[in-house]
Amino acid sequence: MKISSSLQLGWLLISSLVWFCLDTLQAEERIAGPIIGQQINGQQIKQHVDFLAHPDREGRDGWGKLQSAEYIIKSFKDNQLKPFFNGSYLQKVPDLGDNSERPVIVGQNIGSYVEGTDPLLKQEFIVINAHYDHLGIKRGFTYPGADDNASGVSMMLEVARELAKNPPRRSVAFVAFDLEEYLLWGSRWFVAHPPVKIEQIKLCITADMIGRSLGGLDLPTVFVLGSEHSAEVQKALTSVHISDDIELAKLGVDIIGTRSDYGPFRAQEIPFLFFSTGEHPDYHMPSDTPDKINVNKTASISNLILELVQYLGNNDMAPQWQESKEADLAEANAINQVTDHLLNAAQQGEFELSNVQRFFVSQVHSKTRYMITQQRVTKEERAWMKRATQLLMLSVF
User: Fold this and answer.
1) Which residues contact residue 118 at a Cβ distance below 8 angstroms, ignoring those fewer than 6 apart?
2) Read out DSSP for 213-228?
3) Which pLDDT score, from 0 to 100, does residue 395 have?
4) Model's pTM, two decimal places?
5) How high is the pLDDT of residue 2?
6) Which residues pair with 73 in a beta bridge?
7) Measured CA angle at 222 (ends 216, 224), to 5 deg
8) How do beta strands 221-225 and 247-251 pair?
9) Extended strands (E) in the chain
10) Cα–Cα distance, 254 to 49 (Å, whole number)
11) In 3D, which of 157, 145, 128 has the Cα closest to residue 52?
12) What confidence score (pLDDT) does residue 142 get?
């Protein structure tokens, strides 16, 4: 059933005014040890997040960002990772638009790598990245950026630690991008001035905000975007183990566009994956604090990324770029899962939906369920699903 134009307009108006109600009581979280077959655990994630999002870091802009850079470099050195930028861990990033002989330096990317074990394949790179900058202090309020993006940096540091002990056949680089909050300038500079030939970079894996859940609800969902652009990456996602405490939701990147540092790689048609658990009410707020991070969930996502890199890093065939194929039934599954969680939470009083919102979410849920039952998604249905998901994002993401 299609929504009328007037109803869509009503949804847009209402969604712009609605704030989702959350339970302010935070249950004390237990920090789990490693699950069998998993190397990264919640305690390791917590250690990084607590440091990077501590009030002393001043929101990782200015002096606090320099301290964070030192912390990241120390972790690379402790794990004997090689510097990625011509013998240095740092890549200076000049001011946007400054083309002078001595441009003003406004940031620095941080990079290391582990060399692959294969004599030929070690010339190919997988780049795991997460931005480490945040918003700093504004109007006297510190923006800690625990989820945005201390969570992603924590993943990167732990995956680096594990791969340093057991490198795959391909080389793997770990890059903490600066200036993501400023038009993705750090990653844009990196792609324009790569430390290796751009053709050697075979895959980009970006993590940004992987420590919470969509809309602040207690959901197991982690979104992964970009797999539609590589058959090899699609196969890898279906081949690796996914922990029972997370639920993978595959979406086409065209639904949200460029939202993080995968953007410059995407523009170069480098296969990529973007991992995120979605936006929540503390996004870009002083309330994005370490105590709200689900460190066990972040550890499970980190282990998933670790296994993906091991799989693709050892595969004979490197990921190849392809134009997006026809609609993927996995998208319908992902959107159906999310709307099912929303409706259940609303029914239990954990999430507030107006009558119009509830009706719209129900329609999206019903139509995606129909697609799943039919085991197909037509071109027209995919276009509708894309628009419907974007409407949901206005009030949920």
Assistant:
1) 169, 170
2) -GGG----EEEEE-GG
3) 64
4) 0.89
5) 37
6) none
7) 135
8) parallel
9) 82-83, 90-94, 105-114, 125-131, 137-138, 141-142, 171-177, 201-207, 221-225, 247-251, 272-276
10) 30
11) 145
12) 98
